Amino acid sequence: MAADTCPIFMRLPGHTKVNLKALMAAWFILLMGLGCILAVPGASFAGTRLATLPLQEQVFIRLAGRNTALVQEKRVLTLVAGINQIDFSWQNVHIDPDSVYLDTLADPDDISLLSMARASDASALTWELYSSRDTDHTVVISYLLAGLDNLVTYTALADDQEKTLDLDARVILRNFSGQDFDNAVFWLTPDTVFNTRLQHLETRQVLFFEQKDLSVTKHYKWDDKTMPHDPENTPHAPGIPTGYTIKNTSDAGLGTFDLVSGKTRIFQEDGQNGTIFSGEDVMPFVPEGGAAFVKIGNSRDILVFKRRIHTEQTRMRRNKKGDVQVYDELITDRFILENTKNVPVMLTLTDTISGQWEPVDMGHAYTLTDHQTLEFDIHLDAEEKKTIDLTYKIVNKFTGNFARYNKIAPGN
Predict the structure, then answer these.
(1) For the domain that residue 116 is a member of, what is the CATH number?
(2) Which pLDDT band, with edges at 50, 70 and 90, does 10 fall under?
(3) What angle do CA 244, 264, 217 make, to 5 degrees?
(4) Residue 318's pLDDT band (boundaries 50, 70, 90)?
(5) Is residue 219 located within the same domain as residue 110?
(6) Among 333, 327, 325, 386, which Cα is nearest to 359's?
């Protein structure tokens, strides 16, 4: 067969004949060998070094309360001049891969993050860091960790006169995250920080606050929206909620940090070196300077009656036919308060006046919590009965027909 027609040979300059099949086989072997080299674990391009991620120097955990916590780890990396690869993996640990963040804490001209790659199963990350020199450098790795939550509980002990309260607070940590913490710094609030050990599948209780002899006031709270206005004629009257008002202030013995929300169990000294269980409630979040009411039960020792004793239409505006269209209404409500106990009590009475109103003669000092809610703090002596009349004016009330035919259309 003529050489010019042979399909497996080609003529190169200088009339050199090359076996194309042999050349292709040689290239195949070379590529396969290179692929094997690249596939070897730990192999990298020239100028790139795989750095081993060291153990944590410190671990900080910001508790969020429900199932997820923010974890920040300080680690010291040994870097060489050039590009360094750092692998971070979390097999069987409940880390949100989208939340993982590396902070180099350095001048970007000195150390900079070049790239980040995630493993296909979302259980590892690889960072490429450039360092201008050989150095040991501290980095912070942050991430959200699921399965780590906390509960806050309070225990309160009132003295037998119900004037002071011993209060302690504990946080219950529950770890189902898959990760162990030998000595972590836990942050409940910026002012509530503690160290403890917490292993996977462990539940631990930590005392983080204790205060003796807090000044408290026992209150009875009546609200006209929820309480019957004539308890003697109401079957199964629930009684008036009673409990302690705890002030987060320096004069009460607190006031240096916020009180977080948590279940509260209240006890009272019985005067015979024993205690009795008074009740259970949830302490709301109480900022510095604020106050909270912790309920212990309902009392039928205090009676509150509300009766409307006078109404009068004034400043009436009429149409051309002489019919009243708009008017003001003068109202007097009477509160009859009775303390059947043989000790003085403090009653907080909450009243609601709807609409646009003006005070006329309120009968007692009050505080407006919003434009229609009034709070009266009323002291009742032992077995005292007191009457308070509230006179006020509702302005610009519409008659039925006027309101019916002068409605504002939706969206106008």
Answers:
(1) 2.60.40
(2) very low
(3) 10
(4) confident
(5) no
(6) 333
- Answer yes or no: do 295 and 307 share one domain: no
Contacts of 321 (CB under 8 A, 6+ apart): none
Note whether residue 210 is domain-resident: yes
Q: Which of 265, 283, 299 is the last residue of a domain?
A: 299
Number of other CB atoms surrounding residue 42 within 10 Å: 6
DSSP 239: -
How high is the pLDDT of residue 56?
87
- First CA to last CA across the chain, in angstroms? 97
Same domain flag for 276 and 372: no
Nearest Cα to Cα of residue 262 among 149, 173, 150, 151: 151
With beta carbons less than 8 A apart as the criterion, state whether 293 and 220 touch: no
- Please report whether residue 386 resides in a domain: yes
Is residue 308 assigned to a domain?
Answer: yes
Does residue 410 form part of some domain? no
What integer pLDDT is reported at residue 403 of this predicted model? 52
pLDDT digits (tens, 9 = 90+) for 124-133: 999 999 999 9
Asked if residue 155 and residue 288 are part of one domain, the reply reads: yes
Q: How many domains does the chain have?
A: 4
Give the pLDDT confidence of 36-56 residue by residue, as tens digits.
Answer: 433 333 333 334 566 667 888
| CA–CA dist 192, 214 (Å, integer) | 19
Looking at the fold, whether 84 and 182 belong to one and the same domain comes out as: no
Side chain identity at residue 113, one-letter code: L
Model confidence over 238-259: pLDDT tens digits?
A: 789 999 999 999 999 998 889 9
DSSP string, 77-138: EEE-SEEEEEEEE-TTS-B-GGG-EEE--S-TTTEEEEEEEE-TTSSEEEEEEEESS-EEEE
| Chain centroid, CA 133 distance in Å | 44
